[in-house]
Write a structure and sequence with these properties.
Length: 251
């Protein structure tokens, strides 16, 4: 949005982010802010807005680890417009009316690994399930959900023999899917997507049944602004023998 305003002739003074790291993709920070000389203030927020008929200036400053204003850091910035980013929230009205269970962490429906919801025959995919970073991921999820829905409609969707509940342990946040079932074999990918609530250097994601580690998957990094994808294909058979698993990460 900052870059678009720049394209349209606005003088963009700054982007102010309350978190210690950007909430967007690193490539967007480079291509939308750094390349256009737009300052980015991390661990800052706006505390006060002043003006009469329209905004005339704002006061902003640093926040601590609890997102509380740090005394003595307040700065004044003259401007006539303030754009607020409130994040994306899935539109779940139809899902709720259908009596489908909602995941409070994502705001979307609870799903299994073929994006079937808590109500048999109801499938969901894309940003109604969770907010994706890349359209590639949305397309892949849509392909899998569409295939499953077609099989269900034709009466050819195999009944799942097992169901494994998946949950995250901080800093692992929302996980999709929340349940894993043994529907498909063959070439279908076995993927889990998740987000962390803080930056983790050289993370090792572990899938555990109590204290037993069933899988350990390494990644170069994990940050809140980017979805982490875990390929569990080679661990699936071990996982399906359990009833509830926890995903945790160590850096």
């Amino acid at each position: 949005m900052a870059r678009r305003c720049k394209f349209e002739g606005a003088d963009v003074k700054a982007v102010i982010e309350i978190r210690p790291e950007p909430s967007g993709l690193n490539r967007n920070v480079q291509q939308c802010l750094i390349d256009y000389g737009i300052p980015l203030y991390l661990k800052h927020t706006v505390f006060k807005i002043c003006g009469s008929k329209r905004i005339e200036r704002v006061f902003f400053g640093q926040v601590d680890e609890n997102m509380v204003q740090v005394s003595g850091t307040e700065k004044e910035m003259k401007c006539d417009t303030l754009l607020l980013s409130a994040g994306l929230i899935p539109e779940s009205e139809l899902i709720v009316k259908a009596g489908i269970k909602i995941n409070p962490l994502t705001g979307g429906p609870v799903t299994d690994n073929i994006f079937q919801t808590s109500r048999n025959g109801f499938f969901a995919c894309g940003n109604v399930v969770q907010v994706y970073d890349l359209v590639d991921s949305v397309s892949e999820a849509g392909h899998l959900a569409g295939k499953a829905a077609a099989l269900y409609t034709a009466g050819k969707l195999p009944m799942a023999r097992t169901r494994v509940k998946l949950a995250g342990r901080k800093p692992v946040g929302n996980i999709v899917p929340q349940y894993y079932r043994d529907y498909f074999t063959g070439k279908d990918k076995d993927l889990i997507s998740l987000r962390v609530d803080r930056k983790v250097e050289k993370p090792k994601f572990m899938i555990k049944d109590k204290d037993e580690i069933l899988a350990c998957i390494r990644k170069p990094y994990a940050v809140p602004s980017e979805m982490t994808i875990l390929d569990i294909s080679k661990y699936k058979q071990k996982m399906l023998k359990r009833t509830e698993l926890v995903i945790e990460v160590k850096g």
